[in-house]
UniProtKB/TrEMBL annotation:
<keyword id="KW-0274">FAD</keyword>
<feature type="domain" description="FAD-binding">
    <location>
        <begin position="4"/>
        <end position="343"/>
    </location>
</feature>
<dbReference type="InterPro" id="IPR050641">
    <property type="entry name" value="RIFMO-like"/>
</dbReference>
<keyword id="KW-0560">Oxidoreductase</keyword>
<protein>
    <submittedName>
        <fullName>FAD-dependent monooxygenase</fullName>
    </submittedName>
</protein>
<keyword id="KW-0503">Monooxygenase</keyword>
<dbReference type="InterPro" id="IPR036188">
    <property type="entry name" value="FAD/NAD-bd_sf"/>
</dbReference>
<dbReference type="GO" id="GO:0004497">
    <property type="term" value="F:monooxygenase activity"/>
</dbReference>
<dbReference type="InterPro" id="IPR002938">
    <property type="entry name" value="FAD-bd"/>
</dbReference>
<dbReference type="Pfam" id="PF01494">
    <property type="entry name" value="FAD_binding_3"/>
</dbReference>
<keyword id="KW-0285">Flavoprotein</keyword>
Length: 506
């Protein structure tokens, strides 16, 4: 019987990132997937800034940037008329090293992650599915089946379900997945063609009863169309072809389609698992939460789940933390999922609402005021922080403590630029680190050296104050670069007290 520290079921982006992070931290991991290979269709497109920040820790950000495509402008259409062109560009300038919206289709994304995982010495085991598992004290024994239905038993300390909305792991642990589906049916099509809307930018057309979003997937003539299917057609969704839905909204944007690479219809669901952990099993990504595609949040949120759980599993397996630390995974990520579903629900509800009042607002009022709002710095910053997931924080969860300046334990570390770089430079491998802006006290330097915690001292300047940092404060960063402890007056007692309170042995 094979054995590993961690068995991951599901090799989509969340499972692959979890495996990569665990490998980088020296954990013995196995990853299986029921599919015969990586995805060939691109369900997700957007890579958000927070994901790129986390990817930088593993040397993945630059390859994603080089292979992807930034979105510099947002175009709003209403009933066939171009109403606004809003500059995005570096909309998040000063907030992150990645202050833009970035497109990187999921099929390419998965191939990159699989290649990196293979370089790290781990291959995804394909055509392998989970039929169930038994828990035995300090480990589980999973029942795996291959393409020929041959059963294998695999022992693991921890079992992670990254296996999507129909998760076998979630079903096996008996966790409810309440929610529902939106009434509208949608279609998605990857196309090549010619149109003012196939201009390498983001285009949204709002009509009386139709919604069409055009995403650039590459410069010049290639894009993805996402639109509503009218109710009279939805009843025969299984037989629908692209020509059946290429109606008024597409005519409005003057799209001449020369090639359809992929077409599908689907209903959008919103569901959240009642728990993200039961015993020695965890749920990550779509296995734990699904929601509308508004804002391009789903895949990025799943990657955030994976990174959050990975370093905690590594800490427990390597004796740096008690098993109780793993409870903080659900405590941190489940509230994030609930907020995300609520936010995307509101956005999605507005975009798809019908009725005379909704139509007036959507096709008349919104196109008139959006250009004005798009020029307001505060509105642009709030929009970017929300979409990019840089606003996400864990202030009220266990493991996070203290306040220094405007930064609290559980916050994402604010980004600060310097002439020679920035304060987000990665460690050789993910781990704890301490940041200090200004002069460090000798006892803090000694404490970091004794505990093997890299201490990074940065010169204090006006940008540090603008970011909310405090001079002379010590920010003890978790391996996911969230602030574990913000100590305004750092000392050995304060730092040791944080370790004791959380059972940490660094």
């Amino acid at each position: 019987m094979k054995a590993s520290d961690v068995l991951i079921v599901g090799a989509g982006p969340s499972g692959l990132v979890l495996a990569l992070w665990l490998k980088a931290m020296g954990v013995d991991v196995r990853i299986v997937d029921a599919a015969g290979g990586p995805g060939t269709t691109s369900r997700a497109l957007a890579i958000q800034a927070r994901t790129l920040e986390l990817y930088r820790q593993l040397g993945l950000a630059q390859p994603v940037l080089e292979a992807g495509y930034p979105i510099d402008y947002f175009n709003l259409w209403a009933e066939g008329k171009h109403r606004a062109r809003i500059a995005l560009g570096a909309v998040g300038a000063g907030l992150t090293p990645y202050p833009f919206l970035h497109i990187y289709p999921q099929d390419r994304h998965e191939r990159l992650l699989v290649e990196r995982l293979a370089q790290a010495g781990l291959e995804v085991e394909r055509n392998v599915s989970l039929s169930g598992f038994d828990e035995h004290g300090d480990h589980v024994v999973a029942r795996l089946h291959d393409l020929h239905d041959v059963e294998e038993r695999c022992a693991a300390r921890w079992l992670i379900g990254c296996d999507g909305a129909r998760s076998a792991v979630r079903n096996a642990i008996g966790v409810g997945f309440p929610g529902g589906a939106y009434r509208q049916m949608f279609y998605v099509a990857d196309i090549e063609g010619d149109s003012p809307a196939l201009n390498g930018e983001l285009n949204v057309d709002l009509d009386e009863s139709d919604l069409l979003v055009v995403f650039a997937t590459a410069p010049g003539g290639r894009g993805r169309l996402v639109g509503t299917v009218r109710e009279e057609l939805a009843e025969r969704a299984e037989s629908l072809q692209f020509a059946d839905v290429a109606g008024r909204a597409i005519d409005n944007l003057m799209i001449k389609v020369t090639r359809v690479d992929w077409f599908a219809t689907y209903r959008v669901h919103h569901r959240i698992a009642e728990h993200f952990r039961r015993g020695r099993a965890f749920l990550v990504g779509d296995a734990g939460h699904i929601h509308s595609p508004a804002g391009g949040q789903g895949m990025n949120s799943g990657i955030g789940d994976a990174v959050n759980l990975a370093w905690k599993l590594a800490a427990v397996l390597q004796g740096q933390a008690p098993e109780s630390m793993l409870d903080s995974y659900e405590a941190e990520r489940l509230p994030c999922a609930r907020r995300l579903v609520a936010t995307t629900d509101r956005a999605f509800g507005f975009l798809t609402a019908d009725g005379p009042v909704a139509e007036i607002v959507r096709t008349g009022i919104v196109p008139s005021i959006m250009p004005l709002i798009g020029r307001l710095p505060s509105a642009r910053e709030y929009f970017f922080r929300t979409i990019s997931q840089t606003l996400l924080r864990y202030r009220h969860a266990p493991l996070n403590a203290g306040r220094a300046g405007r930064v609290r334990g559980g916050d994402r570390l604010p980004w600060v630029a310097y002439d020679t770089g920035d304060n987000f430079a990665p460690l050789p491998k993910p781990g704890w680190q301490a940041h200090l802006y200004g002069s460090a006290r000798p006892d803090v330097i000694t404490w970091c050296a004794l505990h093997g915690v890299p201490l990074r001292q940065y010169e204090w300047h006006a940008g540090c104050a603008a970011a909310g940092l405090a001079p002379g404060a010590c920010y003890l960063l978790r391996p996911d670069t969230y602030v574990g402890l913000a100590a305004g007056t750092p000392s050995i007692d304060v730092l040791d007290g944080y370790l004791r309170a959380n059972g940490l042995r660094l």
